[in-house]
Input
Amino acid sequence: MSLIKEEDRLYIENKYHNTQEPFDPYQRRAYNGYEYDPSTGLTTQEIKEGLKRLEPELEKLPHPVAKAKAIAYVIDNDRIDVNEHDYFGGLYTWNREIGMVTVDKWNREVFQEKIPETDRLMKDFNASGAIMIWPDYDHVIPDWESLMKLGFPGILNRAEEYHAARKASGRMTEEEDAFYEGIRISYEAILKLVRRYREYALTKSHEKAKKIAASMRHLEEGPPQDIFDAMQLIYLYFMISESIDYYQVRSLGNGLDRTLYPFYLHDLETGTYTREEIRGFLAYFMMQWSAIGNYWGQPFYLGGTDSSGKNRINDLSYDILEVYSELGIYNPKIQIKVSHDIPEKFLHMCMEQVRNGDGNMVFCCEPGMRRAVMKYGATYEEAVDFDIRGCYETGVRANEVVQSTGYINGLKAVLYVLSNGFDDRLGKQLGLSTGELSGFRSFEDFYEAFLKQLTHLIDSTMAMADSYEKYMGYVNPSSIYSGTIVHSLECARDGYQDGVRFNNSAILIIGFATMIDALMAVKELVYDKKEVSLTELREILKNDWEGHELLRMKALNSVHKYGNADSITDAYADAVAGYFTTKVDNTPNTRGGVYKAVLHAAMAFVWLGEKTGATPDGRKAGEEMSKNGSPTVGMDRNGVTALIHSATGIHLSDFTESACVDVMLHPSAVQGEDGLKAMESILMTYLDEEGMSIQFNVFDEQKLLDAQEHPEKYRTLQVRVCGWNVLWNNLSRKEQDAYIKRARNIQD
Output
């Protein structure tokens, strides 16, 4: 029996954008799907016009109140839908329209009027490709436990109690009063939306409408009563926070299986729902994020171990995995918390999905990630209970926010040594003046200058972030999120500014392996073998290796490449990683928290690569760099064992925000039961060596070449890009070629 009717699936796939028209997943919220009943609200243009009319009133108000009123206006006037083909309500306008009169406007004000020099520097660094930096509001997880226990009315009532207590104390400031008012206005608007859904559902006669009306009544009056209510609450919170407010929700539940499990047990025990009915709800639930089409994927995690050492994998964990596989989707994306006591059957299921190419999964190793969390001040109990945000980032549940502050291009530090800090792309001095090339008599001199350039990029990132982070709550008050966080309510401070215990900032190192390879190429070609001088190398790179193909081949074919268990290369990789994490980790930021180091590339390995000239390792201008903690494409020649040895040699848990390694395996290496055990062995070896996150691609060169030539035959072929999967046919030719190159390498 199908979990979802085919006609229902078709409607949901067109709920957020028309699948027959061009679609940009980076701009996913800018679309509308199928048409909604005009009697339920305004058009997108009418909402924009209404917000502009509201703007003069908002300008007189404190920002939390002004933003909350803008949110309430959109919620009150947005078109809604209760469709016979869907168990979850629809919002027609979902492109953060409040920004034009609140967040976007206030952001411009801060950068242009309060910190214009920071604005100039950020534009320069972003244009150069040396640092990618902007204010990040897209990595929050509410306290789902509070939402499940209290529901929307309970969250509102709890905030009102804290507000009243603060008033009674006689010490409440105007700023604190505005903080609580923002929460009140926001949650009253949410409850009004829930009531609108209920009332509209009652005008419909189809079976799903009855179910939706009953669920909305439960959520209007209190906390979720069953598993369907709980899913409905998660969906509603997500859509409001992500699409009307400005905070992207980066996990569905504090472990989706853990959050939903009490409802699951209760519903089965009481006969409220059968297991098959629950699986059906899960199918409709997960299809929402598949249809939304976020390029980065919508994450949730499964499993984990509690403080008593008991693994949290349960019957619902298996159901979620089975439903996901049956749907054949690659969004949402799933993180699996892994420890040695993870059930073998469950791990087999995960690995089989990955091997078959229909599982968008990353394996997050609890021992290493716990150590990472404790290194920035969390207790053991907090570390055991850590959340996974976004792709694979760590976080203290209900008491940590992290903004991804800056993506540092490690290759620029190498190039700045060669150019004495002059940025060839920007045409101006952006790095440090570390001296003329004639002064570098030894590799030690060059390496010392490289570390100075890397330090300069780290310090510049922190200086820019310190300048604007003090305004995060001013620009984008987080009333909806803050309402779920007890610590924020207790101190009457914005949850994303300084209202949680851990108000942290993350700095990412991009192109790590390629950076190490470039250093090794300088050492070998310039100093050890004296094939070329630094001055000559500088000119060769400026000309993108033109006329020096033999030298480039020597650079590309060097044995000193990260990922091959080469002792010298690995020693430098460990040293540079340690230098970076020492400089970054636990340095205070301006929100009362600290900086955290990250070995995770997102799409920056492509975007920054496009802005980076040729480099000493043989890479040509504009080519992508290495991603995450993985080797440069085509440079890992000694197999997966050597790769794991190199990767775990750099103390991955020192990257306290996240670190990930990508492994590509040939199908012949993972066939049958022995193949699954081989994959599990790689995972457990990585876990034992203090690894953090690891992900797999399984395919061969011939299949990818055929897919490139005959895309119509491979419409469902997935590849893992970074912390998410994409369809092969959605990759550019250049990106496809990079995967083909690495696939060729693993079978040579």
